[in-house]
Amino acid sequence: MSTRAAQALSRPFTLGSAELPNRIVMAPMTRQLSPGGVPGEDVAAYYARRAAAGTGLVITEGTFIDHRSAGFSDGVPRFHGEQQLAGWSRVVEAVHAHGGKIMPQIWHVGIQRPAGAPPFPEAPSVGPSGLTMDGMPGTGEALTLSDIDDIISAFADAAQAAERIGFDGVELHGAHGYLIDQFLWERTNQRTDAYGGDLLSRTKFAADIVAAVRERVAPDFPVVLRFSQWKAHNYDARLAEDPGELESVLTPLADAGVDAFHASGRRYWVPEFPESGSDLNVAGWTKKLTGKPVITVGSVGLDNVFAPEALTGAATAVESIERLADHLERDEFDLVAVGRALLADPEWADKVLSGRLSELVPFSKDALQTLH
Fold first, then answer.
1. In angstroms, what is the C-alpha Rg of the chain?
2. What's the whole-model pTM score?
3. How far does Cα 26 stand from its chain's mean position?
4. Residues in contact with 297: Cβ distance below 8 Å, sequence separation at least 6, in sequence order
5. How far apart are CA 316 and CA 344, in angstroms?
6. Are 245 and 239 in contact (CB under 8 A)?
7. How far apart are CA 285 and CA 265, in angstroms?
8. What residues in the chain have per-residue pLDDT under 50?
9. One of 178, 195, 235, 268 is an active-site residue; which one?
10. How far is CA 265 from CA 38, 189, 296, 301, 311, in A?
């Protein structure tokens, strides 16, 4: 790996009250290895290993807010309940013991929840309009205004709890076709009230959540919002067809109190709006349009893009991140989230920053089976 890339990634960065030692972020990756929704000592050790090896910021796997329709698995950690929060407190202590910084990603899956799924099988699947991800009627229910108020409060409760138990910030999962994203997307949001309609109106749910969170945490406690154009099982989906539409989505969220955006693309090197003549990716455009700090993500350090087959097929070869240096040196984005590569190799950050690329462990589906 080049000295340029290592130097660019090794620069410290300040995000609110969080002083990060470098630009490397562990991306959130669902593991379903927390029985009863309680993160155990193995979860704490899993995150602590990444912090000990120099990962500047750990963003946890998605963790469900206190709403009975939020989740789909009893193995995914939850961010409510005495035992669950005690488990998260031990995770924070383990990461901090190695000088790391950590934020939980808080989550509601919305209409993607299968009917009858645990941890609360009697709860209905819910979404903005009760429509499936294909925009078709299904078994889900449309959220009432009272439901929306409850969910907004649950996000704010979770953020407040995160600060109380010592996390260094919080990330709201607004990407990949989950609930916040379902409100943003025209196909799944056919509401005719204040939470539906044109693009600006469809941002109201996300903006209200951000504002509620912002009110419940300290002014310098970082609030990050993850968003994406693509959805699970629909990689061609787009919230915004051009930079102007993207600005219409992001500006109300920045105004509501987002401190940083986590712009999820499947390939960090692919221009988001090539017809504009710019080679900026979605993270680059986000920083240009909002002026806020931005995390990029998307197949960093790997030779293929994120897709289901990447999680089930043959090993994914290690790739140089030489081209990442160009984007970082131009400050197109500020932080770089690493997913599968860091899942396979807990020491990824240390090896990359010290130029030991030949020692990197390739990703394979076997890495998903345990918390190593």
1. 19
2. 0.95
3. 10
4. 25, 27, 262, 263, 264, 265, 268, 283, 336, 337, 338, 339
5. 10
6. yes
7. 12
8. 1, 305-315
9. 178
10. 30, 22, 7, 14, 17
For 174, counting Cβ atoms within 10 Å of its Cβ (0-12 exposed, 13-18 middle, 19+ buried), the class is buried
* Beta carbons within 8 Å of 22's beta carbon, 6+ residues apart: 9, 10, 11, 12, 13, 54, 56, 349, 353
Say what the pLDDT of residue 314 is: 47
Q: Which two tokens stand for residue 16?
A: 């609110």
| 178 flagged as catalytic | yes
Please answer whether residues 339 and 352 qualify as being in contact, where contact means their C-beta atoms are separated by less than 8 angstroms: no
Name which of 191, 281, 155, 180 is nearest 231 in CA terms: 180
Cβ 11 vs Cβ 21: under 8 Å: no
Nearest to residue 281, comparing CAs of 337, 356, 225? 337
Q: Among candidates 127, 266, 146, which has minimal Cα distance to 202?
A: 127
In terms of Cα–Cα distance, which of 241, 227, 120 is closest to 183? 227
For 26-65, write each residue's pLDDT tens digit: 999 999 999 999 999 999 999 999 999 999 999 999 999 9
pLDDT value at position 3?
A: 79
| Residue 2 pLDDT | 58
Dig out the tokens for 343 from the structure: 């899942």
CA angle (331 as vertex; 327, 336 as ends), nearest 5: 65
The Cα 54–Cα 39 span in angstroms is: 22
Q: What is the pLDDT of residue 300?
A: 86
pLDDT of residue 363: 86
Q: For position 243, what pLDDT does the model report?
A: 98
Give the residue carrying structure tokens 């645990």: 118
Pairing mode, strands 170-176 and 223-231:
parallel
Query: 100, 94, 97: which is closest to 21 by C-alpha?
Result: 100
Tell me phi and psi for residue 243, to 5 degrees: -60, -35
Structure tokens, 126: 């819910």
Indicate the SS3 state at residue 85. helix
